[in-house]
Design a protein that fits this description.
mainly alpha, two-stranded antiparallel ribbon, 4 helices, 10% strand, globular
Length: 78
């Protein structure tokens, strides 16, 4: 599962505001705000998390899993 920090970092890489993520994902603004808070995406429906992840991936974001080098992260595709 993606983290609140990954969602915020992905938006920052794309230069997107929360309303832009709402438009791209079809998820409500209060849900995006909650997903990016300390509550995180774990309390959201799987469909909403998938919609957010898919919209960010479609825009060029790659989600990275935690490994021996560091924690989870994001990067842009070439």
């Amino acid at each position: 599962m993606i983290t609140a920090e990954q969602i915020k970092a992905a938006r920052a890489l794309l230069g997107w505001s929360q309303p832009q993520l709402v438009a791209a994902s079809g998820v409500s603004l209060p849900t995006i705000v909650r997903m990016e808070s300390s509550v995180g995406p774990g309390r959201s429906s799987a469909a909403n998390v998938d919609a957010v992840r898919q919209s960010l991936e479609n825009a060029g974001v790659m989600f990275l899993s935690a490994d021996e080098i560091g924690g989870p992260g994001v990067r842009l595709k070439k």
